[in-house]
């Protein structure tokens, strides 16, 4: 029963003649006029809240509105806290990369993958390098082999404009 804050009507905002009333402890009190329901709620120092406006007659509940909204906000905050945001980190290599630079980039990519991020490996071709795209494909293949114990290839190397891109996913533990 998740209702947005905009949909809830409380106390005097409820203009219906009759409502189906639920007490604060959850017992059904039946169909009562909204004025009587309002009096009942105010006698208990609680609010009358319309929880099902689409029902015929609408369903209202006697509850502490402030406490209810606080609980809703607390649940939303908890749900956001448990989410894992996956970001994409990029590692750029060239078609004619040296061994030390290559190993350094592999080490960084492994660190990103262990943190749970996706890694986008790209090779940029400049000028005449566009004639030798096979070199870039070899570098990306070698890169995939170097990180295969911590990653799986999500998207194989693909030429897009002047760059070749490959996307790696972290392996599940």
Automatic annotation (TrEMBL):
Q: Where found, per UniProt?
A: Cytoplasm
Please provide, in alphabetical order, the Gene Ontology terms of the cellular component aspect for this entry. Answer: cytosol; membrane
Q: Which GO terms describe its molecular function?
A: ribosome binding; translation initiation factor activity
Q: Which UniProt keywords apply?
A: Cytoplasm, Initiation factor, Protein biosynthesis
SUPFAM superfamilies, alphabetized:
Translation initiation factor IF3, C-terminal domain (SSF55200), Translation initiation factor IF3, N-terminal domain (SSF54364)
| Domain annotation Translation initiation factor 3 N-terminal: ranges | 10-79
What is one Pfam family matched by this protein?
IF3_C
This protein's major location comes to cytoplasm
Sequence ranges assigned to domain Translation initiation factor 3 C-terminal in this UniProt record = 86-171
- NCBIfam families (alphabetical): infC
Q: Fill in the subunit field for this protein.
A: Monomer.
Q: What protein does this entry describe? A: Translation initiation factor IF-3
Query: Source species, please?
Result: Pseudobacteroides cellulosolvens ATCC 35603 = DSM 2933
Q: Gene behind this chain?
A: infC
